[in-house]
Amino acid sequence: MKRLGLAAAALAATMLSGTLSGCVAPVGPVEVTRFHLPDTTALGQGTIIVAPAPGMDGNSLEFRTYAAAVGRQLSLLGYSEMAAGQSDQVALVHAERRTLVPGREDSPVSVGVGGSTGSYGSGVGVGIGLNLSGPPPEKIETRLSVTIRDRASNQSLWEGRASFAVKSSSPLANSQLGAAKMAEALFTGFPGTSGETIQVK
Q1: What's the total number of domains in the chain?
Q2: What are the CA-CA distances from residue 44 to residues 20, 30, 145, 190, 196 (Å)?
Q3: Structure pTM?
């Protein structure tokens, strides 16, 4: 029984790894925009604390999931993350998810009339097309924004925004999986070109 449980856990880990790498559940690129001051020497060093942005519940599972993903990326950049206390900088995290329900502008039943001419007169054909594909699937859009501020002056040093959408059936629609992807995309090429929007696959 224990051996069976270990095998199941190994299979789940393999599937999760494949999902995150894009092999099992490929997704579109993450759209990322960054803004920062001309002088970026203060970024990527010193101590930092991850905190909820205004409007975010710091005790919610949603915030803690994205805060952990952002904190990991900040550590990789060279920051020393603090759980509490007087850090040099503060990273304010805001995340939101919404369901998109695409609509069809065309009717499910369409009728087309076409004419043709030839050397033996003319003909008119009538064609009826049935759209049986059904409505487009629902999508989950996720938006993540992070603002890094200097604690002493409260000046905004860097701000990044990321967004992407996946089918609601995709594993990445789950915030615990999508958070890692979004945070990684947001800090790709940090600090980035100010004002430029890029697509990160």
Answers
A1: 1
A2: 26, 22, 17, 8, 20
A3: 0.69
